Amino acid sequence: MAAPGRAGSPAAAEEEPPLGLDSLVEEAAAAAAASAGFRLTAVRREPAVRLQHGVSGLEPLAWSEDHRVSVSTARSIAVLEQLSDVHGGGQEMVIHRTAVPAPAAACYLKVGPKKEVAECREKFSSSMDPTVSQTFMLDRVFNPEGKSLPPMRGFKYSSWSPLGCDANGRCLLAALTMDNRLTIHANLNRLQWVQLVDLTEIYGERLYEASYKLSKADTPRGELEDFAEFQRRHSMQTPVRMEWSGICTTQQVKHNNECRDVGSVLLAVLFENSNIAVWQFQLPFLGKESITSCNTIESGISSPSVLSWWEYEHNNRKMSGLIVGSAFGPVKILPVNLKAVKGYFTLRQPVVLWQEMDQLPVHSIKCIPLYHPYQKCSCSLVVAARGSYVFWCLLLISKAGLNVHNSHVTGLHSLPIVSMTADKQNGTVYTCSSDGKVRQLIPIFTDVALKFEHQLIKLSEVFGSVRTHGIAVSPCGAYLAVITTEGMTNGLHPVNKNYQVQFVTLKTFEEAAAQLLESSVQNLFRQVDLTDLVRWKILKEKHIPQFLQEALDKKIESCGSTYFWRFKLFLLRILYQSMQKAPSEVMWKPSHEDTKIMISDSPGMGSTEDDQEEGTSKRASKQSLCDTGKGMDIDDTADDSLPQSSEIGGHEPMEEKLLEVQAQIEAVEMHLTREHMKRVLGEVYLHTWITENTSIPTRGVCDFLMSDDGYEDRTARVLIGHILKKMNKQTFPEHCSLCKEILPFTDRKQAVCSNGHIWLRCFLTYQSCQSLVYRRCLLHDSIARHPTPEDPEWIKRLLQGPCTFCDSPVF
Q: Whole-structure pTM over 0.90, yes or no?
């Protein structure tokens, strides 16, 4: 084990300098970074999102796996969803903004019957003993409304669940208010957040029914009239932090005694009295009925401040535990016994990672799974922010047991670390202090343990003079979100504070493109931050780089995965938008010109060629006001640049290019449609009997695939032959619900009957959606119908799939 307190790298092996030597430390760190041979160039990414209220709580910024940024403020949680828009030509990052409002009523913890609690509150507030009355009146847990004190509004902390936990397969948001109310929210219709459950209320009821004893063997405590007992009952249900685990699998016994695997997720809640409640939820989480169990663990740590999940996989066996940090300094891992969880194991006893009571509070803990290149096994890197230092601990399991290497990285900041985040894909850690300085720490493995190479990122060089309040890194490490306010100007503090969420790039376009091509996820929606960098590059340069085209074509030829076809479709759509001409005027602004004069200007004559070109460009462009004029780049070459409006006939080559790109888009969309049709037909063949009718227009899909003579796919033809034999000359056509006429399957997007009634088709099952309510893709690519109770399980599984064009979820 490394000596406690020693630095993890030679560049960080010096003692923490006094405040006056801050510049010297920065120069030394910069020289060490330069000698290490790596350099990070942070570039500002527009737009900067201004917050309506000031931030609140510790670690106010969090970035979810489905690319939503939550910001804890004094009145609500602002949620910023990053989208990779394929229908607009603006170069700015596209952000969809929603909010989770703070509850209007104050939260009073349940510590006994209402009448008895009211009597005790009156007794303690009017007590002649000042140690009782003053403590009671000033404690905001007892008095969340505060009366003469400012109200406890806002949020203390927020935490995102893993991807795939709500009804739409997205992330849940656990929110902790300043008055200690813990709730779980879901965004089911994109425009509104819904509170699914109030865990504080449920936990209070459980404690009340158990007489505020953790187990039956506990000895009964004092009465509520005792002030110490009154404090104990509050502290045992006052949340400090909460964190989600990864999705695990449980076994559920059906009525016929068959077992089926059911997904579940755990939420660990750390309380003020050092107890930890571990909630188990069945997925998808719908509300109170999805709560499976709640177990309480005694951590034994005094003054707990933070926790995190430790999840380790060794030889296909998953181990889990909870890492708890104290405000006094110690850090340890607690075993978590997950009963009935398939393939999960835990520790036999707690493992102490740092035991010194050095009065350096643990502010934040991150656990990063890595692979050790020298030991040839998986390992866990635990990093914790303690004051201005970073404590790290490397955990790996060998034949000798659990090996623990720990140390500290010093010389990073002259002020305490206010926020820390980590890129779990490569183990890079980012820390920041309030003076606008961010450190990037890259772990480098050695024969024994590891060391850190770190580099300073001065946000003042990107945003100007700013103060930082929190940072968060995007899921794929492409962006860093920062909460900033104005810094000092000429030695003076700003009069007003304007809180903003700003973004800087951490990767280049080449790095993002390479990561997308070599991705093991193969899902564009889960890599929105990377695709946004690619989108930004194409919109600026108005062409797809040659190396990316060639590499993508090779990938398509070698493996033929539909992921690369979707990636190609994404690139073509962005290229199409980049070639669109920016509108000459604001589209929403009403025209003040007299229409009569416009008509009289050209009596008996058609519109001129310039007017036609202008009208075409206006109809084709879908840019918003903020995007107007930003799609042009004067540095482009003659082949790729847009023609000037003064050129006679110059629009013809551009129109030809647009038609060519549009034809390529339609060809790729048709290929993806055919591949999904084959999958749907495969499901139909596996799950239907002879001459069985389903809601899927099977015969229409078969005829549509066979209608193109140029489509040569032996697999599809063999599959269609088997299905037609099973259908036994039955057609099972669809009928219009308005006129009962047959709906022919001639178009993959819509169905039109002989009387002209038009119905859109579900892109997941290709059934015509003949109802007023249906779902739509996140990027408005396609629509899908809602599942019905009559649908078999295999059709419901099909309807749970993402968009076949952009991998986005369907709402």
A: no
